[in-house]
Amino acid sequence: MRPQLDTSLDASPHIPALAADLSADAAHTWLAGYLRDQGAMAGTIHTVDHAGDRLRLCAAINIPPPIQDIVREVPRGKGMAGLALARQAPVYTSAVGTCQTGVVRPRGRSVTSGAAVTLPVADAEGRIRAVVGVGYAEPRDIDDGLLDALRDGARDLLARI
């Protein structure tokens, strides 16, 4: 049985909006729908700063506040979101808590989540504009079909940035 998505555990009030025309509430609403559609229990949206070397948290669902504080700003190449930005490709693990590949930072392994995926979201020119993180309750195989479904769903975010 899949756990209920609790969208009331949104981020703290100082998470900025994605862009001037998309409020933090709209980002949260989009993320809640995306996670529900993907059968996920937790997730984040990070946007890329103007220099392209840092990510800033702008929406979070079911991410504990201490973890939100840690991932509020992520440099390129650090953690799953930073690696997705640096590699310009999805980064994933089948089981966060036991991942020893180096993609999950030690504090990240303390999160009670099964599989996790971070997906870079690029615009038509190929520039990464955001990284979407998805967490599942249980460990699971991450295959091309799942990655394609996650990518397809995340493309809708670009229409809002």
Write the topology of this structure:
Layout: H1 24-38, E1 42-48, E2 54-61, H2 65-71, E3 73-75, H3 79-87, E4 91-93, E5 116-122, E6 128-135, H4 144-158
Helix pairs in contact: 1-4
What this model shows, in words?
With 161 residues, the chain is an alpha+beta fold. It has a single domain (24-158), classed as Beta-Lactamase (2-Layer Sandwich). The protein has four helices and six strands, in the order H-E-E-H-E-H-E-E-E-H. It has helices at residues 24-38, 65-71, 79-87, 144-158; strands at residues 42-48, 54-61, 73-75, 91-93, 116-122, 128-135. A six-stranded antiparallel β-sheet has the order 3-2-1-6-5-4, sandwiched between helices. The longest helix is centred in the first third of the chain and has 15 residues, at 24-38. The protein is globular, with a radius of gyration of 14 Å. The protein starts with 23 loop residues before the first helix and ends with a helix. Residues 1-21 have low confidence and may be disordered.
SS strand fraction: 15-25%
CATH superfamily: GAF domain
Low-confidence stretches: 1-21
Span between N and C termini? 34 Å
The CATH C-level class name: Alpha Beta
Order of helices and strands: HEEHEHEEEH
Total beta-strand segments = 6
The CATH architecture comes to 2-Layer Sandwich
At the fold tier of CATH, the topology name is Beta-Lactamase
SSE-based structural type: alpha+beta
Q: How helical, in percent, are the residues?
A: 25-40%
Number of helices: 4
What topology, given as strand order, has the largest sheet? Answer: 3-2-1-6-5-4
Globally, the shape reads globular
Let me know the largest β-sheet: 6 strands, antiparallel
| Overall average residue pLDDT | 79
